[in-house]
Every structure is written in C-alpha cells, then in structure tokens.
Amino acid sequence: MLDNLSNRFSQISKNLRGQARLSEDNIKDALREVRMALLEADVALPVVKQFVANVKERAVGQEITDSLTPGQAFIGVVNQALTELMGKENSSLNLAAVPPAVILMAGLQGAGKTTTVGKLSRLLKAEHTKKKILVVSADVYRPAAIEQLKLLAGQVGVDFFPSDISQQPVAIAAAALDYAKKHFYDVLMVDTAGRLAIDEMMMAEIKAVHAAINPVETLFVVDAMQGQDAVNTAQAFNEALPLTGVILTKMDGDSRGGAALSVRHITGKPIKFIGVGEKITGLEPFHPDRLASRILGMGDVLSLIEDVQKGIDEETAQQMAKKLHKGKGFDLNDFKAQIQQMRNMGGIESIMSKLPGDMGQMAKQVPEGTAEKAMGQVEAIINSMTAKERANPALIKASRKRRIALGSGTSVQEVNKMLKQFEQSQKMMKSLTKGGMGKLMRMAKGMKGMMPQ
Questions:
Q1: Within this chain, do residues 281 and 356 fall inside the same structural domain, yes or no?
Q2: Which label site among 170, 250, 305, 398 has the fewest CB atoms less than 10 Å from its CB?
Q3: The domain spanning residue 323 has which CATH number?
Q4: What Gene Ontology terms describe where this protein resides (cellular component) (predicted)?
C-alpha cells in the first residue's frame, strides 16, 4: 500500500542536512522532493500546492533538538501535515437515528460497492452484536448483483431482503425500509446500481432512491487505484448527493496513494473506511494518523495491536497458557493453532507491513502471496501427520518424513524446514512458560489500554 510514496519520503528524510534549525534554504530541496513525490502519487495539483506551502510555513524556523536529525524534524512536520490533510482522526458511522439507521451506498460500477456492503455489514455485526442488520440490493442492471449480495449476507450472518430485476430501484428501497421498520431492524444497508461512467439517468435514479429512504449515512465507494479520476468522480457525486463519507476500496493494490491524500480535501467529506484485499474481513476504519505513519515508514503499531486483539481467540490462548503452566510441551497442534490465529490477524504480510522501520521495509521486498503460500504448506504438512506425531514430534524420523512429504505434496527437505521452524517456536514458548500465550494477551491488552479512545 502506497509503497512508491513511502519510498520517496524515506529518501527525503535521509538526504536532508542542516544545522540547529530548519531554514528556507536547507529545506528547499526537500520541499521540491515532497512536491514531486505527491505529483507522482497522482495527488491533485491544488492539494499539492497547499500541502507544500503548509509544510514550508510550519518547518521554517523550527528548532532541532539534540535527539533529532534535521531529516527527522522535517518528517515530523510532514507527518502532522499529512494527518491533517486526510482528516486528523477517524470519522465513524453515525447510527444515532430512530431505527432503522439507513446506509445508502453509491459509486461507479466496478468500485466494489456490493462487496463493501458485505464487508461493512460484517464489521457492524462484530462491533454491535445486538443490532439487527438488513441488506438489500437495488441494482437491477448488473447481472447477478442481487444474488451476489444474498450470498454475502449469508456468509456474514445478516438478513437479506429479496428483490428482483423487474422492480424499480426506488420501489425496492422503499419496500425494504418498510419491512425493516415493521420487523424492528436497527440498520438497513441499501446497495445501488453503478454505471461505467457518470450519467444523468444514474444521478437522477440515485437521487430518487435517496429521497425515498432519507439515509443517515450516504457513503461514496470509490476505487483508490483510479487516482485523480477517483477524486473527480467523488466530487461529481458530492455535488449530486449529500454525501456523509467516502470508502476507498483496493487500497492494497494502490502503490501511489493520490486518492487517499486528495479526496478529503477536494470533497470536504471524511474517508471512513478503506478496503484492503478481497477477503470479507478486508475493510478497516480509516485512521489518517496511522496511514501518515505508514507512508513515512513509521509503521502502524496501533492497527497491529487491534489485529492481535481480534485475531487471538481468548479461549484457545488460555488453554495453551494452562497447558504450558502445567509443564506440558508446545506441540504441533499448538503450532498449527498459532498459524490459524496469524491468519485471523490478516496474515504474516499484513502484520509485517504495519511494523516500523526495517521490518516494515522488509515486508515490501517479499513477493505478494509467498508468505501466505508458505503458511498453507506448513498446515498441509501438519495435516499429513498422525495424531501421535503431532502430539510428539520426536517420533518423526526418516521413514515418517517420507510418508508425510508424500501425503502433503511436499519434499522431505520442506518437512525438515517446517520442523526447524516449529523448534524455534517451541523455544520461544518455553521462554514464556510462566504465562505463555496468556502473557502475550495481557501485553496486548495493556498496549490497547494506552491507545486513544
């Protein structure tokens, strides 16, 4: 995510030299680099001009403390300016309405609206376990759009209001709202049709849908990979509808980042969520300060802690802690459980990308999907073992390794490599015997307690 921009800012920090304070002279080259980095990232020109002027005004005359280099002091100024450009803080959904709180999704075809409805309904269900959520598709133009939303609703465990391509979008939305009121739903999410380009008929239709259901949230879903086009489209929708926020999809595929840096400034509407990946879990609340930190190579430790909190199954962790406390060894069943929990946190690549400094940079060097493939291979090897072998890995000698390799579609060398990885994890867990995973969980909870609410 935003790799090109991050790499450019990293070089700016290293190249800046100066004395006891930042001056117009010693930041001149750095400002030129900032300007070029933003333009290459497809940030809108008016945004670039204002941003550079803002950074210059803040930086000139700033004293440099003994603990900072000129580069670090300058990047500190850039970090603050980036955060403010993208909205300062997370803007959550406003569901404080007489039920049902209606959320209308708008956007062009291919932006990922329907998938985002599924992702967002899953997120709301996880955060508000007692809320009843209903979703409906008013997209009568795209083949299989209604069926797609029905499948997603079943996948995430929310209710689906049936619709048909013979119906009018306004009638569908009105009927769904009436049903939601009568059956005491807390939230109604309405998916609308997209087009390949903005046209008058499309805008007239979505205005009519909006008027019929009076949503508390009107969210514009836009593909971040469109760059400057994404910002232009957002502006057009903002002029047609009273938007309350933006959702940027496909952020994991956008190495430039122009849309994320421009859309708030151009529309005046907050980015509320970003879509990362195709998995149903791939939707995150947008935190400007965290994205600014990631862009500038500082990592995103707060999001990482949240991933750990969501990924660790407390019951499994407590069972493992008790097992270790009783002196029972960490076996291959536990190793497999660790891998599964890492997957729940978004996978090793996602975790590493949020680490600061060199570890975060290392993640960018790993070809996409290779870490996930390696974890899948480890699981396949463990699944090819007998229950006794998993519980007592010392039993696994040459003949057993050949059988396991054959059963998992791997080689003996790969089985040996996996066993070595297991031994390293085993040693780490032994060092945590006085608490095991429970200790790790307490650490994570303690760190979460320090997070801003």
A1: no
A2: 398
A3: 1.10.260.30
A4: signal recognition particle
